Amino acid sequence: MRCALNLGKKLKNQAEITLIDKKSYHLFVPALYEIASAYGIKKDPFAVRLKKTVCIPYADIFPANKRINFVQAEVSSIDLENKKVATRGGEILEYDYLVIALGGQAADFGIPGVKEYAFQFKNLEDGLALNQKIDQLTKEVVSGERQMPIKIAVVGAGFTGIELAAELACCVKKLSKACSIKGKCERIMLLEAGPRILPMVSENERNIILNRLTRLGIEVMGNSTVEEVGSDYVKLKSGKRLDVDLVVWSAGTRLVDLLEKYTVLPLTEKKRIKVDNSLKVAGFSEVFALGDNIEFIDPKSLKPVPALAYVAVDQGKVVAENIYRTLKHKNLETYKPFYTVWIAPVGGKYALAHLWGNRNLKGLLGWLLREVVDFRYMVSILSFKNAVSIMWQEITVFTKND
Fold this sequence. Notes:
Elements: H1 2-11, E1 17-21, E2 25-27, H2 32-37, H3 48-54, E3 55-57, H4 58-61, E4 68-72, E5 75-79, E6 84-87, E7 92-94, E8 98-100, E9 104-106, H5 114-117, H6 124-143, E10 150-155, H7 159-178, E11 186-191, H8 203-215, E12 218-221, E13 226-229, E14 233-236, E15 241-243, E16 246-249, E17 253-255, H9 257-260, E18 273-274, E19 287-289, E20 294-295, H10 309-327, E21 342-345, E22 351-354, E23 360-363, H11 364-381, H12 384-398
Parallel strand pairs: 1-4, 8-19, 10-11, 10-16, 11-12, 18-20
Antiparallel strand pairs: 2-3, 5-6, 6-7, 9-17, 13-14, 14-15, 21-22, 22-23
Helix pairs in contact: 1-10, 3-12, 11-12
């Protein structure tokens, strides 16, 4: 989306730009965990108020006066040799330049039961289904159909798993209080296959996050590789069995099926699209790729660039610039990844921000900074009025958990 917007500014009337998406809206993924845990909202069959907080209609982002055509369709195949994209509706779109930005999908690593019993956490439907399940479990406790505590296992202690587990802890506590449930209503387990959570952060930052999780009553379990998931249990590789009411899977992503099965695309060993330092797909001069579906090795660290939202936005800017430079017969820009700044919400109005120079902000100040960053993003894609409206809805809905 960032790539399309920048190309529209650079090329104006010199090109026809088409963006294809099977949804009619842009999903603001950084707030998806809030959807899963939102509490205290008057329910309606279509979850309209919840959707408005994270779903931004493309019609608001691409007004009619901009030279960007939005096509709502699901891509069924990509013909790189003949420069054509086919949709499931039978439409064939020809292109001169193609940008592949299909993101990723949940990786189950072939573990039995994950697809059948675990809640995925990649799209709006996943977030809403999880929200409804938590509401259902709480009602069953109140009616006496289910014994306390509600046992929730969140698998994968990366940023997503940590944010979700922390927010779920706040949500269930609020629900139990509202329902006059006495005693500890929930048991939330955060399972990590490795020996420690967030191996990429410093020891001090890890301890800050661990202390916050502990205060929220979350059990952080390292060296807990999942071997099997059932309807009411999680079996670990160690042989230990955990009885659970709900399993949430946030243990990684993989290439979407459409691209993984497409043998013409050059893929790395980790099954991601192989790109050069200009984000051009290896072997195809008119095809670029960005976001979660690529693997880009940082020349400084010699490690893959992490899949972060603002990293994908930066890549979109680089791809737009390089398509423009290609048309103007100029040298392409080299992508220089930047991902050393991050903000991790850890339940309620609390976040840890890692800033330039290894400085940290934590607690309410970290949360406020996160809100400023989100607002800045909204202003970059919407009118100021619409950006304020989205942020106001988000704050008034999601702070009910805090």
